[in-house]
Each structure stands twice: as C-alpha cells, then as structure tokens.
Design goal:
The structure is a homodimer.
Chain A: E1 6-8, H1 14-52, H2 60-78, E2 87-92, E3 98-99, E4 105-112, E5 121-132, H3 138-147, H4 151-168, H5 172-177, H6 179-207, H7 214-224, H8 229-239, H9 243-269, H10 279-313, H11 320-340, H12 345-363, H13 366-397, H14 405-431, H15 440-448, H16 454-462, H17 467-497, H18 517-525, H19 543-560, H20 567-570, H21 576-581, H22 585-588
Parallel strand pairs in A: 1-4
Antiparallel strand pairs in A: 4-5
Organism (chains A, B): Mesorhabditis belari
GO cellular component, one term (chains A, B): recycling endosome membrane
Protein name (chains A, B): Sodium/hydrogen exchanger
Chain lengths: 593, 593
C-alpha cells in the first residue's frame, strides 16, 4: 500500500499554522461584519435624511436593498476580500470502505516531504455541502465562502425578534376589531395563493417543458405567499392611513409568515417522489398543518402566560434589569422550545408576543415597559435592515442562486394572479356580513400591498441542493427586490390615486395612534372595555369573540395581571382557596392598575 | 488507477439528504441554544431569589459557573444530545500532489455501490482544526462538536458589549479622581504581574522538568493578569463600599482587560522559537505594545467623538429609533474597525464607551438615553451570564482542555504572589503623593479582589493547538472557577473582616450613587466643574489633568455637545467662521443643557 498522506514542501509548525489561520479567518470575519455594519450606518443616516426632507419614493427597505445590490456588485466585480483558498480531491484510504451516507468528518494526514521521521499531523474537515459533480465551477465557491452565512442565523437569530416585535407592538384595538377578516386572509388566502401559484406555474412549466415537479412548485407557492409587513407598515404609519385598512394589511402580513412557514414545511416533508395526488396523503398533510399551527400557537401563548404569572407572583419588578432579561429570555424560549419539539417557532414567538403585550406588559415596572418596547423595536429594525441588505448582496454573490428568466416571468404573473384570485372573492364574501364593508379601493390596495420580504427569502435560501431549488431561490430574490422597490415605492402614490383616506382626512379620535412610545403604551394598558369610537362594541358582533372576551375579562386578566376585578370577584366561592393564591396584594387592595 | 470515490450501500437522493441533514443540525442547534437560554432563565430567577432574601455568599457569576458545571457534568456523563457522527481517513487522489500548507477544502466524490452509471455527487469539506496524530481520541471529538462554539463568537459578539458597557456606565467622578492610581495599576501592575507569573512558573516548571517554553508561560502570565470586573462590581455595589476603593478596584479590572489582550497578542506574535532574550526584540515588542494600545485608544475615542458630532449637528434626535440604532452601530464599528486595521478592538470599544458617555450622551433625546443605557446593561448582563455558564460547561465537555494538577498548583501560587508583588509596592509608591492615602486594609482588599473571568478564559480558549496550550486553557478555567467561587463568595466577609467602610458607615453625600438609572443619568450629565464633596477640586492636583480639563471644557465639550460656553465664546476671533458651523442653535440661544 502506498504512503497515504499529503506531502508539504516547506517546514512548518502546527502551533504557528493554527495561529496564522485563526488570525486570517478572524480578519475576514471582522471585515465582513464591518462592511455590513457600515452599510447599516449609511442606511440609518439616509433613512433619517429621507424622513427629514420628506422624500417618500424609496423607503428604508427599498433603500437597504439598493445598497445591498451595490455592495454585492462591488464584491463580485472588484474581487473585494477574496479569500485565497485551496481545494483538493480526496478519496478514502480504506478502499473497501462502504457507508450508508457521506461521512460528517474527514481526517487528512499531513507530513513534511523530506522528513519521514517527523511527527505526523492530522487535519479535521467538516462536511459543509454536497452538489452534483459537474454543476458548479470552482471560482464561484471561492467567492461564496466570504459572504454566505448559514440559514441557521436567519432562523435562529434574526427572524425571531422581528416576528416577536410584530406581535408585541400590534395595535390591539384595531387588530381585534378586524380579527375575523384577518384570519380569513391569513388561512384561506395564503392557502389559495399557494395552490394557485403552484398550479399556474405547473401548467406553464409543463407547456414549456421546464422540468419542475409539482411539489417543488407548491413549495415555491407556499414560500412566496408570505407577504412582508416591514415596508407597508412604514408607509402606512407615515401617511396615517385609515386604521381598518391598516389593520387588515398589517395583520395579514404579520400572521401569514407563520402560515407560509408551516405550509412550506408540510409540503416539503411530503414524500419526495410523488407526482400523482393521493387524497389520503393530502388529508394527512392538511391535518398535520392544522396540528402544527395550533400547537405552536398554544405553546407560544402558554410561555407568554407563564411569564405573566411569574412577573405577577414574584416581586421581580423591583429589579428591572432582571425583569427585562427574564422577559427577553422567555420570549426567546417560546421560539426555541417550539423548534425543538418540531413545531414552528415563528408561530409560537408571534403569539407569545401578543400574550406578552396583553398580559405581561401590565405587570411590569414602568422602566421595563419602556426598555422592552425599545429593545425589540431596535433589534427588529436592525435585523430587518440586515436581512434586506443581505438579500441585495446575495443577488451578485451567492453561489446558490441560478437565474432563469422565463421562470421568473411566469412566477411574477402567477403571484399577482394568485393574490387577486383570493382577495376579491374573499372580500366579496366577507362583505356579506362585515360592517363597515371593505370598499373596492381598499381591495385594490390590499392586492397592491402584497410585497414579499425576509421570510420568503429565508425559506427559499434554506435548501438549495438541487438546480430547481436554486432557480426558485433566485426567483424569490428577484421578486422581493422588485415588489419592495416597485410596490413599496409607489405605495404613497397608490394611496392618493385610489382615494384612500389618510392623515388629516380621518376624524381625529378615529385615527391611528401615533407611534411615539408614550402613545403606544397608553393604548396598551387601556382597559379593553372601552367602546370603540364608532359607538358600537366590536365584541357584540359574534358569538365566539364574545365568549372569548368574557373569558379574558373574567378569568385570564384577573389570573395573569394585577387588573381588577380579581379572581376572588369573578370565580365561584368553592374555588376561593386557589383563587386567593393567584390574587396579588394590589388586587386585594382593590385599586385598578 | 483505482476507482477513487466513496461507495454508499443504499440508494439516496442528494436533495433528500441535504434536507435531512439540515434538519438534524437545526434541531441540534436549537437544542443547545434552548439549554443555554433555559439556564439563563434559571440564573435570573435564582439571582432574584438571592437578592430578595439577601443571601450573599454566592453571587450571580458564581451561581452561573455552578450551573454551568452541573450542565457540563450532565452532558458528559449522561451522553445527552450526542451527535452521531462518522469520520473517515482520506488521502489525496493525486498521489504526486505537494502543497505548501494543508488545503482549506476537500472534495470527496461519492457514488452508489451498485450503479456505476449514476450521476456522481461531490461533497465539500472545510478545515476545522489540526492536531498531532496520536494526541486525541475519537470520542472526545464527538462530544466537542455539540457544545464548543467558535472563539470568534466570544471576541466578535459577546465581549464587545460587556467592555463597552464598562466604559459607558463608568462612574466618571470617582473614576477621574483616582485616574492616576488606576493607570498605575493598569499599566505597571499588569505588566509586572505578567512578568512575575511567567518567571515564577518558568523556574518552577524547569525544576520539575515539565517542558514549558518561557514564551508560553509569559503568554499565560499576560492572559491570567486580566482581572474580572463583574463579580466585584456586584458585591461592591450591593454593600455600597467606600467609593475610592470602588473606583480603584473597578477601574483596574475594567481597563486591564485591554492591557492584557494587547500584551497577550504582542508576546504571542513574538518569534516562536526563541528562548534566549534578545534585547532589541524586547524593545520592539514594548514599542509595539504602546503603539497598539494608544492607537486603539485614539481610534475608539475618534469614533465616539464622531458619533457625538453627528448627533449634535443633525436632528436625528427627533427619531429616537434611528438615533439609538446609530449609537449602537457606531459603538460596534469602533470595535470592528480596530480589529480590521490590526489594532485591539477591546481597547477601542472601551474608550469609545467612555467618549459616548462623556459627549454623545448629552446630545441624545431623553428616550434614547434611557434606551441605550438599558440596552447595553441588559446585553452585557446576558453576555456575561452566558460566558460564565459556558466556562462551567467547558470544564467537562471541551476537548481542548488538558488537566495538569502540578501546573495548576504552581499557577495558583504564582498569580497570588504576582498580584501581591505589584499591589503593595505600588501602593507604597503612590502613597508618597496621593491624598487620601491607600490604607493597609484597602491594599489587602485590592489583592483579594483579583478575580479572573471572561477575558482570561476567552484568551486561553482562542488557541489550543498544542498540548501545552491545552494545559494552559484548563488551568485558566480552574483559576476562574476557584477565584470566582472562593474570592467572590468571601468578598462580603472580607470587607467586614478588614473593617472597610461601607453602607451607612459612609457620610451620605460622599457615598456611591445608587445604581438606578435615574441616579446614573443625573451623575452623567452633571457638569464636571462641580467640586468634589471633600471640598477640593481633584483637577487641581496635577499639571496634566488640569491641562486636559481645560481643553475638555473649552474645546471638546463646546465642539461635541450642546453645552455652554460654546466655541464662539472660548475660541479666538479668527476661528469664528469655523466655530460657528459647530455651534448649535441651542448653544446660540445660550441656554445650558
């Protein structure tokens, strides 16, 4: 057997080499981080300039995308920060070896050429990716190593605070007034959009023989159905758009991320080889979808309620640092716990955020309230900006995107048809019972506000092992860029054009609360019993909401917050021994919060 | 030539495999994160309980270490979350290949056993570490993969906010009153401690023939000289210890991290093969040390001042979200920029923090002040807790620590001798001019407060390629655990025992400001001209501080903040055109801030 190790031409020391390599990698890491952070600074400054001079045709996310594109272009065409790497082909030294799967680690033995008596050194290599042998050039891999970062960072670090913040800063009153319509959009709408996109694309790609499986296109349909709340939120807030429309659009885009991710996972884990539709399997998938969604919802809510109980029953509010830390940690746990038990963290963290705002917020010290609000606001702003910038960069730099213009063209058509196909009929249906009706111009605006953003990109970027998935990833990126720039940029104009009430056209007491934190807080701790300004209690409308409202006011709020009436007032006498335990001194004293 | 690819025994799809592998890794990642976050929750809750019941013998960091040890023990002995990984030996397919260094990536070709006509798949492997062939067992590597995370995360993500917060929340008045003594401790003290530890250990290990190079021991001396501010800070704050002692101990431990890191890097990059001391090289190293330290200091301060100018000259304070984001981003840039230009980020971020507190803080909106304070407080608390927990876990789990009890024993002796050797003579020297003198019992307390923490661990953990470095890493961990538990736990007792004034024994106006943020803020925006309570202006003492004070009051403050007098008042007439540009409307109006 031949000497099975790599020979090195120059004398060297392992210690020295490790030091040098660690330093080179560190410099590269910091350089990449510095680039992104510097871009974020430029973004913040330009965002301020635009706000200051009331320039409204490009918004933060659009701006961020453009900067990202510019940077990606520079990296690609000026070879900035190219990491000089070497790759060699290897084979197992044990030629009879047979494994079930590719190994996770390789060990490579190295010796200096001249000194065969020198101590040999082993190097440990970790599997990073697999690809079909002829599909990729070496150069591309070289560049990719500099800027690609693991999708794990998206899902575990960047997305949770964004989604949590959506739940935590939800304007409760307007949201709950439109809860029925929002849920219809979220569940029916997203599913229809996913199916229509998938089927349309399947027909189109079959005609042109582009070789996509139906299941792949359905996955694309699911992930591209996640609309993005960021840009629309900023435009609508700034123009102070009529609050019902605001609630519909924002509610839909905040919640359908969760539906899209569960849908994508469900379809993705569906048997990979099927092109015939098996009704049983379909039913199973639907049930699985419902199970995952509602279990995640429940889990997130339970974690939120647990935090509320904990802050109520302990005096941790005396130590605002500990209280704030606990709040942040528990909110993050809701996400991680759901992921570990194979549910969907995004759904859990969203509903955890809603519960934290509804219950825990009332128990916290004045200081922690302000801190947590601002903390998540800043973190989610920075995460969003980072993701949008990264999307822009990835257009030029990522090695896992493959452009296919016909497919992109078909996809653009399909997603807008799919969106129109569910918005108009659904609005017509909802208008049968809903008061006030959703006017025609509102419906147009809802269709127009179907921007795609971070979640769609994250889902597409997660798995790009095959060529088709790489096409899907590139298409998603293009759609995000185009909708954010085009629809985002024209939102102002569209609002004017469609004659949608905004700003001073809306009677004052009916208008959207301003976004300064004082106003938000006031709204949040306001008792829910306040009748809405239109004079009717929205909860009177339907049976289920009314039931929930009573349950919330008589059981959940007394149990989880310091609000009065306490459990001692609302529960039957035989439960009093237990009820007493959950009644705080402040509730005993009878003072309202 | 033989068929040079790996054979797989079962049919499989690349797409499917990538999906499965990504999922498995994701579950592992979230599980590890969940474990750490859950432990942090338990830590916060126990910390609250201890505070609530005034139990003082174990402090947060000690507690966190103990939890970390417990978790590490569980992971090790119950094999929790063991990642089933496979490793195979490989050799280059090109047998004549010769390289200068081990390759960064390996490509492994894979085919199914039966179907030689199937499309072949390549897998890409990345270099993670090197080790001498016979030094490590396979099992240890398996376990290590689950919990070890890259030192990059320590240095780029976890440490900067901790150090920034130390600078940002520094009690300026007490700090500057003792600046001379603190700097003496930091520069002379740390250097002496490093040399004494290194020489003592060199003598001891030579006697017992343990085979350490002098340079390795000097590196150890440097990294172990970084004392930890966390535990002492919490004990001293809680007991409201006499403020001069507080400033001395806290100032030393906050600043000597920076010196230790520069010292370690300087010695580490010193020629690797020398055991004879070359005077020229030594001088070069000393000059390099000074260059790196002061350039970093300057760079951090410049970034801080730039932020101040920016917040002063723009109206970004109207948008508190953007303002806060900008503040956070700039603070982080000071760190990254220093690292990229090969200076020391920790020094830069520390002095950036001090500048931000001294200048920028005054320009910000009320809301941003509170937010940034709380933000860094929370982030640094969580980062610290995480690091201490991780140190505990690493004792049982890390594959890069090698225990050597005699060395540990010698090291324990050496570090305390080294600390005593510089504290007592230095205090005697300082007492020649210093008023009030540093009393004998204060000197004992300073020696006793030499706890080791996060920075020492991070430096030791960074490079563990050789066996000696692994011994040093294990020894550092042991020293951190012992000093935090023993010295940290007995600090209260020691303060009583030595008869150091604390709590109500100190006249009220002379006592430490309470740590609620309102108090802190008031202190921070207080004009520096206030004479200290002892009736003498501390700046009268020496020539250099007085010069700096004048420069600060007449140029820096008017330039960088809205404080009065403005540049128009303090600068000579010929500079007025420029001075006017840097004078804000608020300064024009003549109102004090």
């Amino acid at each position: 057997m031949k000497a099975s190790y790599l020979k090195l031409t120059k004398p060297w020391l392992l210690d020295h080499y490790a030091h040098k390599r660690a330093e080179a990698l560190h410099r590269l890491d910091t350089l990449i981080l510095l680039t992104f952070i510097s871009v974020l600074i430029v973004i913040v400054l330009t965002a301020w300039l635009f706000k200051h001079y009331r320039f409204r045709f490009v918004h933060e996310s659009g701006l961020t995308l453009i900067y990202g594109l510019l940077i990606g272009f520079c990296i690609k065409y000026f070879d900035i920060g190219l990491w000089e790497s070497t790759t060699i082909d290897v084979a197992p030294t044990n030629v009879t070896l047979q494994l079930r799967e590719p190994p996770d680690y390789l060990r490579l033995e190295v010796k200096e050429k001249e000194q065969s008596q020198a101590q040999s050194v082993s190097f440990h290599y970790e599997l990073i990716e697999g690809f079909y042998a002829d599909k990729r050039k070496k150069d591309e891999q070289k560049i990719e190593q500099k800027t690609a970062f693991s999708p794990e960072i998206f899902f575990n670090i960047l997305l949770p605070p964004i989604i949590f913040n959506a739940g935590y800063s939800l304007k409760k009153r307007n949201f709950f007034r439109n809860i029925g319509s929002i849920l219809a959009f979220v569940f029916v709408g997203t599913t229809v959009s996913c199916l229509v996109t998938g089927i349309l694309l399947f027909v189109l790609t079959k005609i042109f023989a582009m070789g996509f499986a139906f299941q792949e296109l359905l996955v694309f349909g699911a992930l591209i159905s996640a609309t993005d709340p960021v840009t629309v939120l900023s435009v609508f807030t700034e123009m102070r758009v009529e609050p019902d429309l605001f609630a519909l659009v924002f509610g839909e885009s905040a919640l359908n991320d969760a539906v899209a991710i569960v849908l994508t996972n469900t379809i993705d884990s569906f048997s990979m080889s099927t092109e015939t539709v098996d009704l049983n399997a379909l039913l199973g998938a639907a049930l699985n979808f419902l199970y995952v969604f509602f279990s995640s919802l429940l889990l997130g809510s339970i974690v939120g309620c647990l935090t509320a109980l904990l802050t109520k029953l302990t005096h941790i509010a005396d130590h605002s640092l500990l209280e704030t830390s606990l709040f942040i940690l528990f909110s993050y746990v809701s996400f991680l716990l759901a992921e570990v038990v194979q549910l969907t963290g995004i759904v859990a963290v969203l509903f955890c955020g809603i519960c934290q705002a509804h219950y825990t917020f009332n128990n916290m010290s004045e200081e922690s309230r302000a801190t947590t609000k601002q903390f998540f606001h800043v973190i989610s702003f920075l995460s969003e900006s980072f993701i949008f910038c990264y999307i822009g960069v990835s257009v030029f730099v990522a090695g896992n995107q493959k452009w296919n213009l016909p497919f992109l063209f078909f996809a653009m058509i399909a997603i807008w048809i799919a969106r129109a196909v569910f918005v108009y009929p659904l609005c017509a249906f909802l208008n049968l019972k809903r008061r006030p009706r959703i006017a025609k111009n509102y419906q147009h605006m809802i269709v127009f506000s179907g921007l795609r953003g971070a979640m769609a990109f994250a889902l597409a970027d997660r798995n790009t092992a095959t060529e088709n998935k790489q096409i899907i990833c590139a298409t998603t990126v293009a759609i995000v860029v185009m909708t954010v720039l085009f629809n985002g940029g024209l939102s102002n104009w569209m609002i004017e054009k469609l004659g949608i009430k905004h700003g001073d056209q809306i009677p004052n007491e009916y208008s959207l609360p301003r976004t300064d934190s004082a106003g938000e807080e006031r709204e949040m701790i306001e008792p829910v019993t306040t009748p809405t300004s239109s004079g009717q209690n929205p909860w009177d409308k339907a049976f289920l909401p009314r039931k929930w409202y009573n349950f919330d006011a008589n059981f959940m709020k007394p149990l989880l917050t310091h609000a009065n009436p306490s459990l001692m007032d609302t529960m039957p006498p035989f439960t009093w021994p237990i009820a007493k335990f959950f009644t705080s001194d402040r509730q005993m004293a009878g003072g309202s919060l």
